[in-house]
Amino acid sequence: xxxxxxxxxxxxxxxxxxxxxxxxxxxxxxxxxxxxxxxxxxxxxxxxxxxxxxxxxxxxxxxxxxxxxxxxxxxxxxxxxxxxxxxxxxxxxxxxxxxxxxxxxxxxxxxxxxxxxxxxxxxxxxxxxxxxxxxxxxxxxxxxxxxxxxxxxxxxxxxxxxxxxxxxxxxxxxxxxxxxxxxxxxxxxxxxxxxxxxxxxxxxxxxxxxxxxxxxxxxxxxxxxxxxxxxxxxxxxxxxxxxxxxxxxxx
Amino acid sequence: xxxxxxxxxxxxxxxxxxxxxxxxxxxxxxxxxxxxxxxxxxxxxxxxxxxxxxxxxxxxxxxxxxxxxxxxxxxxxxxxxxxxxxxxxxxxxxxxxxxxxxxxxxxxxxxxxxxxxxxxxxxxxxxxxxxxxxxxxxxxxxxxxxxxxxxxxxxxxxxxxxxxxxxxxxxxxxxxxxxxxxxxxxxxxxxxxxxxxxxxxxxxxxxxxxxxxxxxxxxxxxxxxxxxxxxxxxxxxxxxxxxxxxxxx
Lengths: 251, 249
Fold this sequence. Notes:
The structure holds 2 protein chains of 2 kinds. Chain A is α/β, with parallel strands linked by helices. Chain A has helices at residues 43-50, 72-76, 94-102, 112-119, 135-147, 165-182, 193-199, 217-223, 227-243, and strands at residues 3-13, 19-28, 32-36, 58-63, 66-67, 79-82, 153-157, 185-189, 202-207, 210-216. In chain A, the strands form 2 sheets. A 6-stranded mixed sheet of chain A has the order 6-7-8-3-9-10, sandwiched between helices. By secondary structure, chain B is an all-alpha fold. Chain B: It holds the Pfam family ABC2_membrane_4.
């Protein structure tokens, strides 16, 4: 299976003592990978390193088989992402913002902007300034922006933050549609375990900067009632390891 | 290269969308008109030759000492610290362009904005002189005018490089603006207290264009000062990039 993203022994140390420790992770083409973990576990840090916003202290990251540092611009052409929070230039309209992004992809057809706005349910607000948008609307715009250029790999950090129930249902349908129609690989970090259970084929659990467990969702569900039960059990194990002398990438 | 072109287009577009850039430029262009009207109204009272053909060059002093430095500080604040405080820098960094490309685009767009402002101010001042100038006071050769404005552009862009470097240490636009105004004022004051400081300070070359209008200045001196300004520009742009490249957002 073609490797889309590969992290090898990736660590990041912050002055606070928190960070990421020795993460090894491979995403194959077509994966919908869910990254789970409590607040402060290092999910966003991991995604930021994967997109070049943070530099790893140790380890290597490759996208599409090429080292991220060496081929950043060419790799990022095939990546769509929404990291940490949906922040925008609030003095532009939704359409103007997408047009700014589209200038990096001259091959895009002109109607593509309207297509993605329609896909996330923002077509009616295309000419409205982003400063008037709610959190959920900004989240939808960030999704629209990240799928604008037909990416092969989409990274979404807490994509359902601020979305109403209808928005969450729409989000789920969008991921399934994009995965089925365009074969996009997804890496989604979320607290919404039920959402990930329904969407993902693989999940990883990050606890205190360590990827404590990862696996195929169907296999995990064979041994557990739900992904939530599995998640809580794994976190408990991680906590016990911490209490008994520390948790690191080797154990 | 495709990424850099798109990044430049993006930064220019954002500069236009930020209304304060357009308002600043429009208000700036009105300034020479207001001043010439003021001079005209004072002329019968004071009995002086208020507006000579060198008006566009006289105005250049006001532009290069006050107006353009203030304009560049406001723009740099938006291009760098404001992007960090509003967490929009990541939008630029997540696009298919290297960090060097993002930084270069921001600096080039700043240069383009300064160039456009100088061009508009020069045009407005020249038109004011043609329409309201006092007749029979001689003429200023257009080539000299172009030389003066081109020289002013280089000194302003070098000064911009210094402020771009300074901006890398700030995470808020307000903090950067206050510090850079104090820094600029201080750097303008120090030469009055310490002899020789002016030779080594980019901030002391804001009136550098006047050398290009003088017939007594040697070519060697012009070449030396040009090299000094270019060196300063490249030095501060490079230092600025080193800090920009290390930014973790």
